[in-house]
Amino acid sequence: MRINEIMIDGFGKHVNLHLDFEDGVNVLAGNNESGKSTVVAFIRAALYGLSGRGAMSDRKRYAPWDENARYGGWMKFEHAGNYYRVTARFAESKRGDTIILYNDMTGRQIPIPEGQTVGELVLEMPAATYDITVYAPQLSSKPEIDSSNMDCLIEQLNNSSNKDLNQSETVISKRLKSAMDYISAPRSGKGLLEIARNQKANIDDEIACIEKFEDDIQKMRDIHKLKSAQLAQLKNEQSQTTNTYDGMRSAMDIMNKHEKIRRSLTSVNVLDESIYEEKRRQRRYKIPMYIFLMFIFLASVAIAAGIYFRDYVMKISFFNQLDLYKKLLDYSSIAYIAVAGVLALIIVLYLVTMLSGTKELRNLNRELASEEENLTNLLGLVVNSDDDHEYVEEAIKAALQVQEQEYDRAKDFMDNLERRSKDDEKYHTRVEQLTQEISYAKAAIDSLIRQVKSYEDYEVLKEESARLGEKIEILQRKYDALQLARTVLSESFEKWQSDLGPVFAKTARTILYDITKGRHENMKIDRDFEISLPDNSTGRLYPSGYFSGATIDQMYLALRLALVKLISSDTVAFPVIFDDPFVQYDKTRRLSAIEVLSRFAENNETQVIITACVRDDYPENVNVINL
């Protein structure tokens, strides 16, 4: 890999910073706080992105100081004969980042698989391996080797080393076991799988709690809605009961009107009955009256005949001489007068009776007409004066049927009103009960909502749970693969310690020998990259901590260069990017290191990028970039 050009739009203190790099050694020179470390951090961010964890994460640390600057930039580089251009735009979170990779020869965009970075795609190197080989942050000359990145390094070394060399079963087995333990450690619970599973279990518990709360909230809302509807219905019934005054008054008017109609109808029926009786009585008296008048006529004829006969007899002298006859004649006159008086009295009584009956009938008819008029008015009928009685009666009967129906409805209304009045106390009790239940449901909903708010955002938890689930699946697959690799490939790595290990140690010793001008040569490196050096006088091995800081930096500089050389190949060369590696060096050591780095870059066709506070004393073949 060779970095050709970078353009920083906004990254830390740098805004619109353009830099060109060359083959061989490139030195970013500048005073303290000039942003040297920021430049190499941008290179790493373009390849592997930014971390967003922690209060002082890289994402926050390298946010542009200029608020108007765009966070990010672009970088052009070549690797394995291909030319690339990567543009990076960073946001407040990884989700908002935009990393786009182009083929710089064709301009075609190269898709980056989800979950991968540019470094993983192009360099085929994870960030963990990059950080212990290619890139050395400030004051971090010693690679931080642990089980999380050892398997990546071993894989990189294995892929890049001579195919005739194999790694030993013991080392690989231990590495694989260490990697497996790092992924899964059921006893201690510190494995990535256990941690991820515990985290997911906790998050799933929170999600379950939130979902339960949401279900409870929905249930309480349903109860609240139901009780509110019941309360509204009861209040509506009460409102209808309260607003039935007009209906009650109308019903009372109908019933009072019905009572008046009933009384009027009773009067009409009584008058009809009286008229009927009067007519029947007159008809009863009317038949004997003819006989009576005939009798009077005959009696009158008889009296007249008797008077005539008396006058005639009086003319006959024979009868006049009889005293008895004379007396009879005298009494007969009296009798005739009495009979005539009786007849006259009977006639008078008859006439009076007939006249009084006729008058009574007229009075009854007038009363009947008045009552019928009153009844028609009550029934709302319009009757003409020339309508006959039978027509009026038929109209009254039809109107009475309608009135009966209205009366029945009014009576039902009053009966229902009476029943509602009896249930009024029950309504009030039920309303009070529903009000309490609604208040309880509302309080329960508010309490549940507060509990839900005490948790993190539900969607964030769901996303985190899904992410952890994917992570667990990946870790499980990786663990299974490691387990399989440990079992199947154990014999294929038997000779790694005897072949590749010595090659790595020999390369590191040669480089250290050049850096120290022959002072140190027999460097020993264990599997955790701990270095030991023999004392030149006694030959006794001492750990690196027994030596000066500058000597320690020289040891690990040699180790890193050896690692880069081993992971590189004839067709693929990786750069060396060191942030201020000479901070503890004196001038002699610095110049010696620069010389070794120049030869290393030339011999291995490797680009070297370092930062330094010193601006001068560099050979001509070194590209010095002043910041």
Structure description:
With 627 residues, the chain is an alpha/beta fold. The chain contains 15 helices and 14 strands. The chain has helices spanning 36-48, 58-61, 118-123, 127-132, 147-160, 169-183, 192-242, 245-314, 317-320, 323-379, 389-453, 458-488, 500-515, 549-567, 587-604, and strands at 2-11, 14-20, 25-29, 72-79, 82-89, 98-103, 109-110, 135-136, 524-525, 531-534, 541-543, 576-578, 608-612, 623-626. A hairpin with a 5-residue loop joins strand 9 and strand 10.
Architecture of the largest domain, CATH level 2? Answer: 3-Layer(aba) Sandwich
As for the CATH topology of the largest domain, it is Rossmann fold
Considering DSSP H and I runs of 4 or more, what fraction of the residues is helical? 55-70%
Q: What separation lies between the terminal Cα atoms?
A: 24 Å
Number of domains: 3
Strand order of the largest sheet: 2-1-4-5-6-7
Unreliable residue runs: 162-168
Per the principal axes of the C-alpha atoms, what is the gross shape? rod-shaped
The succession of helices and strands, N to C, reads: EEEHHEEEEHHEHHHHHHHHHEEEHEHEE
Just give the CATH class of the largest domain: Alpha Beta
| Name of the CATH homologous superfamily of the largest domain | P-loop containing nucleotide triphosphate hydrolases
Mean pLDDT: 76
For the biggest sheet, the summary is: 6 strands, antiparallel
Helix and strand composition category: alpha/beta
Give me the count of strands: 14
The rounded Rg comes to 65 Å
Strand content: 5-15%
Number of helices: 15
